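Re-running the complex after MR caught last week's input typo. The corrected sequence lines follow. Everything else is unchanged.
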Amino acid sequence: MHRLTHPGRPLGALVVLVVVAVLAGALSSPPAARSQAADVLLNVLATGAKKLNIVVPNFTVMAGSDTAGLSKSLPQVIARDLTFSALFSVVSDVPPVPAGDPNALRAAFANFASAGAHAGLLGLLTLRGDRAEVEMRLHDLTSPEYRLIATKKIDLPATQARRLAHKISDEVVLQFTGEAGVADTKIAYVGRVGTNKELHVMDYDGAGTARVTSNNSINLSPVWSPDTRSIAFTSYMRGYPYLYRMFPFEHRPVQVLAGFLGINTSPAFSPDGQSLALTLSRDGNPEVYVLNLTTGAFRRLTTYSGIDTEPTWSPTGREIAFVSERAGGAQIFVMDAEGANVRRLTQSGFNTQPRWSPKGDTIVYTSRQGNFDLWAISPDGSNLRRLTAGPGNNESASWAPNGRHLVFQSNRPGSYQLFTMLADGSEQQPLPRTSGEATSASWSPRLP
Amino acid sequence: MAHRGTALFAVPVLVLALFLVGCPKRPATTAASAPPPTGSPSPSSAAPSTTPGAMAPATAAPATAAPNTPPAPSEFSENANLKDVFFDFDKYDIRPGDAKILDANATWLKSNDNLVLIEGHCDERGTNEYNLALGERRAKSTMNYLVAQGVQASRITIISYGKERPTCTEHSEDCWAKNRRAHFLVKAR
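Corrected-run output:
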């Protein structure tokens, strides 16, 4: 772990700092518990490289007929996943290596290593009936013997081949950083359909978009439950803004979570999934409540006579940040989960949409200072920084489960579409454009 | 290790070439190996699935757990005798000039025994969630004013649409001012 603080080469690049931050978790564990791959990445970064160079050749078909071309398409999906992680430079679209011939394999590795690759990811593909199985083999190309540092078999229905690729990508990131990647996740969002707004779900990379509500009304504020089985949201499907829960992967009816007079909005699941923070105006004005999802009991947390709304939980479940106008315009406050010890977090501007990082150290929010842009602040009020500076408005951020990426909405293309970026605001890039407006994204936890 | 590292960086041109050529382009190639968007999942998709890979459509819920349900908004209709009132940005207090409009609305409501629905609306700027709260406050301020003028509270239902139902869709202050409003609908008892 001394390598990170080695004074020999400054780790000036932003990307390196991100990598170092990710590795901090892996490094805090005893060295014996770290994977060999983490050492490979550390060694590479210690040389001054910004990213780890990994080659992902086309997969070797071991059995079955690859009529769908998975041996080529899966490595491409993995290449995009690993590139998105911002930890790797990836080379793919390379002919498969002769996995069964040690000498030929060694020669192939030597070629990759001499071209600058630090790691090689091989896939042995077996197609059996409607199942696809990949045995992934991760090799350290910086070691003289090109040692095998991880291997894993993953088996899924062939119809979920992209998911198979995402799981391999997440395993590679796990090996190198100590925490799995976020490729096997979904993003829920609000898509405009004519004059209505319906909920949609897609893969984290924009593939496989599906509309999951069709009630021809306004559906808002989707948010994933921690077990990824359900999405809480506000809907006008029955005329008034009630709060519901739907199960996008199950044939199961929508549940009403809160149907009081007034607004039933702004859902936020507690990290343990047992409770839901929300906004109700049933007592006369918008206040933050917590709904116990087991007993159905509502507990009121705030008592200000104006607007209190938009709760977001700390990952420990012990604190809740929220928006209140008790100090004048909209500002972000923090209270404990019982509603006591309220303290003001933001000081100037018009600040809404607080979202607590799953790592706990950052709250991202939307600030209006002319246009709307995303800012971040530590929960103790320190380390205020701006993440976006246009173009257009940049709003409604949602954290990836690793706390390294954010999805947000921007109208920079002319109408609202979804974008992703790293937590420091770098690497902003659009998700595939949708036909209508796309807003209010919620990044799911990792799928089981 | 050190020796090997030196060897790797002795060929930077080749490294660069390999990794520049090989880098996948985002997002233009994303669709290449992706199945085409399916739009709405087929309701007839047979096997119920609990695997996260397959999407199931949300079915309509049986009507439960909505206490004190007022008449549906669709049962109310426009009435030319009731005029909109408007609000300043991020405000929900009744402007002095608009109080006269509410006085006239109250007078009409006291002589016409209808139920009334007050819609609270916002302009397009800002969060859905915050605007839902703001629209609620606008409808509530308007309701409180009418009640103070002698309209029975039991006749009044409020609904916030936040920024979801603008009357004007241009992105200008003129348009935003028209959207920051309380609007009235009535229903015979």
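None of the earlier attempt is carried over here. Residues 186-443 of chain A form a domain with the Neuraminidase fold (CATH 2.120.10.30). The radius of gyration of chain A is 23 Å.
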